[in-house]
Amino acid sequence: MDKRKVVFLDVDGTLVDYRNNIPDSARDAIRAARRNGHLFLMSTGRSKAEVYPELWEIGLDGLIGGNGSYVEFQDTVVLEQTMTEQQCRAVVSWLRNRDLEFFLECNAGLFGSPGFQEVAQPTVRQYARTKGNTHADDLTVRDVFPDMILGADLVRSDVNKISFVLNTFQDHTDATQAFPDLKTGTWGGRGSSALFGDLGVANISKAFAIERLLEHVGADPAESIGVGDAAVDIPMLQICGVGVAMGNGSDDIKAVADHITDDVEEDGLANAFRHLGLID
């Protein structure tokens, strides 16, 4: 590949392994590819508040956060769409009425409901266990969400999305029916596990955000590469010129990928970059 590529990387299960570590091979490969002139952005469900310094220290050109609700390129905010305060209030009230613990995902921080730290602990451990974390039974919510703020006002106007602990999958189904003006999803664990539900801005996707970013930098979608591991990444792979699925990815994303690389813990990113000619 001779032309400059714009590469969009999912974070969990793609750039970060199931123990929340960045493989050395991935870090080295990104830096080598950037020296070759290619651009790299994270494209993740995380809000900016969850993008910790060790990720930025790799050397990255920007961020698509909140599954597409926020776009930042080289310190310039390209796009930011949030739930309205009225929508936030309605969701918080609905979750409280169902006794579901939750947290607000904002660029300013993560804001948890009063009982989230206690109630979510078994779910957080299950999440880590399904990702192969051998120390899952020792994890606390604070380990996974170290900067989460508890006890703050939970009605805000800067919310990218709201995640909540699923007691059953019916909670997600009911949320979809209760909030047709919002986008609903699930996440958690390896592959397609559903441990958490989420509600976010309607008509937002990683593909939508990628289109805005490519317009901003003047790049052709044909010269972009998307790499991910889960169903939420499928629109990203489809909008990019080349779509790459991680070896640890779910079957549905592998079905639409142009290339399937190795597991995140088996140098999957570095091997994909070599296959695509981004590095030697």
TrEMBL record:
Q: Which GO terms describe its molecular function?
A: magnesium ion binding; phosphatase activity
Domain of life, per UniProt, equals Bacteria
- Signal peptide per UniProt: none
GO CC, any one term: cytosol
- Coiled-coil intervals in this record? none
Q: Which InterPro entries match?
A: Cof (IPR000150), HAD-like_sf (IPR036412), HAD_sf (IPR023214)
Cite the NCBIfam families for this sequence.
Answer: Cof-subfamily
> Per its record, how is this protein called by name?
HAD family phosphatase
